[in-house]
Amino acid sequence: MIATEPADSGAPLAALTGATGFIGRHLVPALAHAGWRLRMLVRREPHDADWHGICPEVVAGALADASALERLVDGADAVIHVAGLIKAARRRDFFQVNAAASAALAGSARRLAPRAHFVHVSTLAAREPCLSDYAASKRAGEDAVREILGAQATVLRPAAVYGPADPETLRLFRLARHRIVALPASAQARVALIHVRDLAALIVALATAKPEGEVLAATDARAQGYDWREILGAGARAVGNPHARLVRMPRALLRTAAWAGDLGRLLGTPTMLNSHKLREISHLDWSVSVNEQARPRGWSPRFELESGFADAVAWYRAAGWLAERPTMR
């Protein structure tokens, strides 16, 4: 069981949402190793081998629980909001979590931790809110946080995040094991990426810095992004399938899969692929300009595409999530 009292009462206190999610499970040790005390909002007792020796203070509750949010942020030196909804059956579900809950957390921080640096971890998709309900809800959350907190808030928009323990990117590597690997978007499309460990280190660096009310993007060293041939090719090499044939997936097949996802949403069963997500995937420009990039002092990305994918695949295989030999069919 994780202890409920911080180990060092003299260290700065970070209040964290989303600690048990993909990004959060990497962020918790990164914050602890940087000398932060941790207070996290959780719905259930967290368990993670990477947290051995870390003693966070636990606030039991959910984002919809106003009193839990107040207990979470009270007296914090930084509030780091990572939690969010990435798939939902209804538009209002996205907005309830990604917008309304973000606003509620920001309001609690303004009242009970007015000097805290509020780091709002959003998504690069928020740059294009018309593409999907998800993107629109994330943008609404950003706008609410900035309106409530002004210069005390930093909005961080990560590019596509991948790395150990991510169930979504695992699908890419499973696809990359086949003899023929389908490319899901146009050859002109560009997608910026960031390894989750680099993102965690970046969030720590931003939380430590003075807030200036900025909206920043998180990417690896190649902020201009990659095309899908580069991404799937690197994925195939990472899984030991260097001679995979990369072909453009027929648009009709993608639409059919997206329509199936839309039907699932109508029936109350959300899936990652639907017509909204297809618009995000098909968007041509997920690159990041120099002016958007987050580059705080003392931080630079350690992983580029090849080393980052190799690190992710090594973890998947060690965890038993991915077979050693490629499928090759």
If you had to describe this structure to a student in words, what would you say it looks like?
There is one protein chain. The chain is α/β, with parallel strands linked by helices. Helix content is 40%, strand content 16%. It has a domain at 13-166 and 193-224 and 288-303: NAD(P)-binding Rossmann-like Domain (Rossmann fold, 3-Layer(aba) Sandwich), CATH 3.40.50.720. It has ten helices and 13 strands. The strands form four sheets. Strands 3-2-1-4-5-6-11 form a seven-stranded parallel β-sheet, with helices on both faces. A two-stranded parallel sheet has the order 7-10. The longest helix has 22 residues, at 91-112. The relative contact order is 0.13. Mean pLDDT is 88; it is low at 1-6.
CATH class descriptor name of the domain at 13-166 and 193-224 and 288-303: Alpha Beta
Helix content: 25-40%
CATH homologous superfamily assignment of the domain at 13-166 and 193-224 and 288-303: NAD(P)-binding Rossmann-like Domain
Query: What is the CATH fold-level name of the domain at 13-166 and 193-224 and 288-303?
Result: Rossmann fold
Order of helices and strands: EHEEHEHEHEEHEEEHEHEHHEH
Largest sheet: spatial strand order: 3-2-1-4-5-6-11
Q: Which stretches are low in confidence, meaning pLDDT under 50 for 5 or more residues running?
A: 1-6
Strand content: 15-25%
CATH architecture of the domain at 13-166 and 193-224 and 288-303: 3-Layer(aba) Sandwich
What's the tally of helices? 10
Brief description of this entry?
With 329 residues, the protein is of the alpha/beta class.
